[in-house]
């Protein structure tokens, strides 16, 4: 193929440019708004809606297929995302920043979803099938690296600036401006590194002018086994979609809360007197007495390495006060309900600190993820998807057993947690390569870009809907039983994978000199 195509130069950062905006818009925005005083209710509602563009992106993917080149699309969208992040940074210090930054994030979300469509299509057009299978693990790995950079390094930068300036508004404003400049650098790099040619030498160019939006969209649903294919795509990540949402809460949630029956100041002493005189006797409390218990009753939170007081978070707004002090309020309400007979609340978490999470996922987990992704791509390119489909799926899902064991036995040593996370991250990197390779097969034929976007759109729906209810399920079942449920939820996808029909050697690198 006569082209300036050097995949190792452009594939890593092109996929990094897909993962970073997603991490910032979906995950980092939650932390940012929390630090800027927005209520949990508003954070949950509005940041969840930011996920929608990735679910519905198939609706406009045919336009990207028909209009312009994929390279022009993803470069334009990456530039738009860069500008959006800069605008968020400059808007944070203003009054009414919440709705204004949300509107900008919405623009960035649609641009990011469009960037994903164009980048995926570019990859499918520029590389032949044998190279696609080799680089599928690299693509997945650098996408995840971008997610880790967003959820790790960017948040660490914001935390450092919070301590430096003692001003969360200034800290997050500077952080988002820095993210905007980072995206600008990546966009410029992709402009110079990506090939100008988008026709694979092994394929004939398709006259897209003869295709309409409706025909491209409808042709996807005429594919062989489409019912089984869609069921597999929607259900394959049924367990993982819930695991991802609840895994970090499990690791950082305290082991338990318990009442301290001695006060260290006058306010705590008075609250304990109320507890002994009225709560234990089941007497009705006035609003002021109830508030005294909420704010002053001494409660101890047990983490993995220490026990520390559960401090009150002061806030003049009543609703925000309830959200910020939910743990204290829930504990006091439980005491009142059982007349002081139950003095502890077991949360069932592992009690890790934020630094522990960053270390586990930012170092050992990162190495395991990278290794798993690379090996997954190599394995498929050498022996084809058929041989590796089931082993990779099992490698991805079986590590959930580790979290079941952690939740039930709560080992004292942190090294057990390290081991479980390392195995889970390796399994994800190795196993997800098979799923992504299968989506490439589903998109085979004309209109690859639009059909791949449709497949990933259904995948996103399969992630979004279970994730929305995962918190309710976890609270009902508790962490131990929740992880058992998550493990069982992987079974439908495993069963459906055995009914999929695709070429035996699909993805196998052709033997060429």
UniProtKB/TrEMBL annotation:
Any Pfam family hit: MFS_1
Bilayer disposition of the protein: Multi-pass membrane protein
Domain of life, source organism: Bacteria
Main location: membrane
Keywords, comma-separated and alphabetical: Membrane, Transmembrane, Transmembrane helix, Transport
Classification via InterPro entries: AmpG_permease/AT-1 (IPR004752), MFS (IPR011701), MFS_trans_sf (IPR036259)
First and last residue of the signal peptide: none
Entry's transmembrane regions: 7-31, 72-90, 141-160, 172-192, 359-381, 388-409, 415-440, 452-473, 479-501
Subcellular location: Membrane
Name of the protein in question: MFS transporter
Organism whose genome encodes this protein: Flavobacterium frigidimaris
């Amino acid at each position: 193929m006569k082209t300036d195509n050097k995949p190792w130069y452009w594939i890593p950062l092109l996929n990094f440019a897909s993962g970073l905006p997603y991490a910032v818009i979906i995950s980092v925005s939650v932390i940012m708004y929390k630090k800027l005083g927005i209520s949990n209710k508003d954070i949950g509602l509005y940041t969840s809606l930011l996920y929608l563009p990735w679910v519905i992106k198939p609706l406009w993917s045919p336009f990207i297929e028909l209009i312009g080149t994929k390279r022009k699309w993803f470069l334009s969208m990456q530039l738009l995302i860069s500008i959006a992040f800069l605008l968020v940074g400059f808007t944070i210090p203003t009054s009414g920043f919440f709705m204004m930054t949300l509107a900008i994030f919405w623009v960035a979300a649609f641009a990011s979803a469009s960037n994903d469509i164009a980048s995926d299509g570019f990859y499918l057009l520029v590389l032949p099938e044998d190279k696609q299978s080799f680089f599928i693990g690299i693509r997945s790995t650098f996408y995840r690296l971008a997610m880790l950079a967003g959820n790790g390094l960017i948040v660490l930068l914001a935390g450092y600036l919070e301590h430096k300036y003692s001003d969360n508004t200034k800290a997050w404003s500077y952080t988002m401006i820095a993210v905007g400049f980072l995206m600008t650098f990546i966009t410029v790099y992709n402009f110079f590194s990506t090939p100008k040619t988008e026709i694979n030498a092994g394929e004939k160019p398709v006259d897209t002018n003869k295709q309409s939006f409706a025909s491209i969209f409808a042709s996807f649903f005429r594919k062989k086994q489409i019912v089984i294919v869609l069921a597999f795509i929607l259900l394959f990540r049924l367990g993982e979609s819930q695991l991802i949402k609840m895994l970090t809460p499990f690791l950082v949630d305290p082991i338990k809360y318990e009442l301290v029956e001695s006060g260290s100041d006058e306010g705590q002493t008075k609250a304990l007197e109320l507890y002994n005189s009225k709560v234990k006797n089941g007497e009705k409390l006035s609003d002021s007495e109830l508030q005294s218990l909420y704010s002053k009753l001494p409660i101890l939170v047990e983490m993995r390495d220490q026990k520390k007081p559960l401090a009150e978070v002061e806030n003049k707004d009543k609703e925000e006060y309830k959200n910020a002090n939910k743990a204290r309020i829930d504990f006091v309400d439980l005491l009142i309900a059982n007349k002081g007979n139950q003095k502890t609340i077991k949360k069932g978490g592992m009690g890790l600190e934020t630094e522990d999470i960053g270390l586990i996922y930012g170092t050992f987990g990162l190495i395991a993820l990278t290794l798993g992704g690379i090996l997954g791509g190599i394995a498929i390119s050498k022996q084809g998807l058929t041989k590796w489909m089931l082993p990779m799926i099992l490698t991805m899902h079986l590590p959930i057993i580790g979290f079941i064991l952690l939740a039930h036995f709560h080992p004292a040593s942190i090294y057990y947690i390290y081991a479980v996370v390392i195995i889970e991250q390796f399994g994800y990197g190795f196993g997800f390569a098979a799923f992504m390779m299968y989506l490439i097969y589903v998109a085979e034929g004309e209109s690859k870009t639009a059909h791949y976007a449709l497949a990933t759109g259904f995948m996103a729906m399969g992630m979004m809907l279970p994730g929305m209810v995962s918190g309710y399920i976890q609270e009902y079942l508790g962490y131990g039983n929740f992880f058992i449920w998550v493990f069982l939820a992987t079974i439908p996808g495993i069963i459906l994978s055995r009914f999929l029909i695709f070429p035996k050697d699909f993805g196998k690198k052709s033997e060429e000199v």
